[in-house]
Design a protein that fits this description.
Elements lengths: L3 E4 L2 E4 L2 E3 L2 E3 L6 E5 L6 E6 L3 H16 L8 H17 L1 H12 L3 H9 L1 H10 L7 E5 L5 E8 L2 E5 L5 H15 L2 E5 L5 H13 L7 E3 L4 H9 L5 E5 L2 H13 L4 E4 L4 E5 L5 H13 L9 E7 L3 H13 L19 H17 L2 E4 L16 E4 L6 H4 L6 E7 L2 H9 L3 E2 L2 E4 L3 H9 L7 E2 L13 E2 L2 E2 L4 H6 L2 E8 L2
Parallel strand pairs: 2-6, 9-10, 9-12, 10-11, 12-13, 14-15, 14-20, 15-18, 17-18, 20-21
Antiparallel strand pairs: 1-2, 3-4, 5-6, 7-8, 8-24, 13-23, 16-17, 19-22
Helix pairs in contact: 1-8, 2-5, 2-6, 2-7, 3-4, 3-7, 5-6, 10-11
Length: 487
C-alpha cells in the first residue's frame, strides 16, 4: 500500500505508484481531500510533480518499447486483468466507504458506483475473444493481406472525481487489454477510493513499468498531456477542459479520446402514465446529486401535461431524504465542493433572471448548517434557448420544457451543443424507438435509462470524440497495420 497512515482522523498516502511500484514522490507536496459533509480535511495524498510525470512516462515508455507487455498474446494479458478484477472486488466495500467520505455520495450510490467497475474489468478479461487482433483478407486474386491491430503505445488517462474507480477501469482495462502501458491521472477529489484502486493495480503485479497512478493538479496534468513520451490521451471531464486537451493533442497530431459534458433530454409522450416514468426520471436526473455526465436534466413534456409532471416531481423529490450520506435512509448528500454549490446557486439566480418559473428547491436545506448541501431544484416554463437549458450545471438541477408535438420535441432535444445521453418514454415502445433514432446523441434509453459500461459509450457534438466500452473501447487503443503478402 502507499504507506497509508492515519493521524487525528486524517489519512495520509505518502507514496506514488510509478511503474507498478510504490515510490517516494519528488516533493513533499500533498493534495488535501476535504469532506463535503464536515468541510474538514480527511485525507492527504502525495501530489505528483513534473519529475514524477517524467519518471512514470519513462517507465511506461521502457515497458512498451522493450518490455514483454505489448508482446504478450491478448490471452496472456487477460490473465493479468483477471487478477486486477479479483483484487478490485476484494476492495469494493472499502472503496465505497471512502467514496462516501470523499464526495458525499450516499452509501447505496457509492457501492453502486464502485460495482460499475466489475463488469468493465470482466469484459476486459474476455475482450480478446471478440476483437480480431489479426484477420486475413483477400486482395486482387493474386495476393493476400493480413490486417494486424497493434497497441498504440503509452496512454495518458485522465479521469474525473464523480466515479473514479469505474472511470479508471473504463480507461485502464481496455488500454491494458490492447497491450498499451498507462499513466493514470485522477482528479483531486475522490482520491481515497482511487488510491485503493491503485493498491489493486499494484497487487495485480503487472510487468515493470506497465501502470502508474499520479494524483496531481492542473499543471502536472497538462505536462502529461503534452509529454513527448505519450502516444495517446484519453480524457473524461468537462467540455471546457476537453477543448484544451483536444487542442494540445491536435498540435501534436496525437490521438485523443474525449468523453465530455452533457445536457441530456428526456422526452415524455402524451400516452404514458407519469407514475411509470417518475422513478426513473428522478433517479436519472438528481441521483448522485446530478453529478453525472449522462444525467437527464432537460425534461420535455407535452404542454398540456406540464403541471401534472411538476406535481409528480414535487411528490417524488420530496421522498428523497437529504442529509448525512452515512445514514442508510439518505438519498441526497452534499455536493462535492463549495465551488460546486456556488455554481448551482448561480444557475438558480440565472433561471430567475431568464424568466423561468422556480417550482421546487432553489436554496439550501433547512437544518443542515454544515456541509455543502443544496436543494434539488426544478424550473418550469423553460425555453430551450435559456442558458439553464443549454449549459451543464452538474447538480440536482432539472428544467421542464413544454412542447406541442413530437417533431418539436425532437427538435428541442437536438437543439443543444451536447449529445451524450437521452431517453424517450411512451406506452408504445416501437414509437418510442423511432423517436429515439431521431435524437442526435450517443445513447438513448427507450422507456429506461442507465449508464453504459460494457457497451460503446460516448457523445456527439461537444460531448466528445470516440467511444469507450466494449470492442469499440479497445479499438481506440489499437493501431491498424496492413501486411501485403505476395503469392
Amino acid at each position: 500500500m502507499a504507506s497509508e497512515t492515519t493521524q487525528d482522523s486524517v489519512t495520509t498516502f505518502d507514496r506514488l505508484l510509478i511503474g507498478g511500484e510504490w515510490v517516494e514522490p519528488s516533493s513533499d507536496a500533498k493534495i488535501d481531500v476535504i469532506s463535503p459533509l464536515t468541510e474538514q480535511v480527511i485525507a492527504r495524498v502525495a501530489a505528483a510533480q513534473t519529475p514524477d510525470v517524467d519518471a512514470a512516462v519513462a517507465a511506461a515508455r521502457a515497458a512498451f518499447d522493450d518490455g514483454p507487455w505489448p508482446r504478450l498474446s491478448p490471452a496472456e494479458r487477460a490473465r493479468y486483468l483477471a487478477r486486477l478484477r479479483d483484487e478490485t472486488e476484494k476492495r469494493l466495500e472499502q472503496m465505497a466507504a471512502a467514496f462516501t467520505a470523499d464526495v458525499g455520495a450516499p452509501a447505496a450510490i457509492s457501492l453502486w458506483g464502485q460495482q460499475l467497475a466489475m463488469p468493465i474489468l470482466e469484459d476486459a478479461v474476455t475482450i480478446h475473444e471478440r476483437v480480431p487482433f489479426e484477420e486475413e483478407r483477400g486482395w486482387d486474386g493474386r495476393r493476400r493481406t493480413r490486417v494486424v491491430r497493434e497497441p498504440i503505445g503509452v496512454v495518458a488517462a485522465i479521469i474525473p472525481w464523480n466515479g473514479p474507480v469505474a472511470g479508471a477501469a473504463l480507461k485502464v482495462a481496455p488500454a491494458l487489454a490492447a497491450g498499451c502501458t498507462v499513466v493514470l491521472k485522477p482528479a483531486e477529489e475522490g482520491l481515497t477510493s482511487l488510491m485503493l484502486f491503485a493498491d489493486a493495480l499494484a497487487a495485480a503485479d503487472f510487468p515493470p513499468g506497465v501502470i502508474s497512478v499520479l494524483p496531481a493538479g492542473r499543471e502536472a496534468a497538462e505536462y502529461l498531456v503534452t509529454h513527448p513520451g505519450v502516444d495517446k490521451v484519453a480524457f473524461t471531464g468537462s467540455t471546457e477542459t476537453g477543448r484544451r486537451i483536444g487542442a494540445l493533442c491536435g498540435e501534436r497530431v496525437r490521438p485523443v479520446t474525449l468523453e465530455l459534458g452533457g445536457k441530456s433530454a428526456a422526452i415524455i409522450a402524451d400516452d404514458i402514465p407519469l407514475e411509470e416514468v417518475l422513478p426513473t426520471l428522478v433517479a436519472a436526473g438528481i441521483g448522485h446529486n446530478g453529478q453525472v455526465c449522462a444525467a437527464l436534466t432537460r425534461i420535455l413534456v407535452p404542454r398540456a401535461r406540464q403541471e401534472e409532471l411538476i406535481e409528480g416531481l414535487r411528490g417524488a423529490i420530496a421522498q428523497w431524504k437529504v442529509g448525512d450520506p452515512n445514514d442508510p435512509q439518505t438519498m441526497l448528500g452534499p455536493v462535492v465542493a463549495e465551488r460546486q454549490r456556488e455554481r448551482i446557486e448561480q444557475y438558480v439566480a440565472l433561471g430567475r433572471e431568464e424568466g423561468a418559473r422556480l417550482v421546487i428547491g432553489g436554496g439550501r436545506p433547512e437544518g443542515l448548517d454544515h456541509g455543502w448541501f443544496v436543494e434539488a431544484t426544478v424550473f418550469a416554463d423553460v425555453d430551450n434557448s435559456m442558458r439553464i437549458a443549454q449549459e451543464e450545471v452538474f447538480g440536482p438541477f432539472l428544467v421542464v420544457i413544454p412542447f406541442d408535438d413530437v417533431d418539436e420535441a425532437v427538435a428541442i432535444a437536438n437543439d443543444s451543443p451536447y449529445g451524450l445521453s437521452g431517453a424517450v418514454f411512451s406506452s408504445d415502445p416501437e414509437a418510442a424507438e423511432q423517436i429515439a433514432r431521431r435524437i442526435r446523441t450517443g445513447q438513448v434509453g427507450v422507456n429506461t435509462w442507465d449508464i453504459c459500461s460494457v457497451q460503446p459509450f460516448g457523445g456527439y457534438k461537444q460531448s466528445g470524440l470516440g467511444r469507450e466500452g466494449g470492442p469499440e473501447g479497445v479499438l481506440a487503443y489499437l493501431e491498424t497495420k496492413v501486411l501485403l503478402l505476395a503469392g
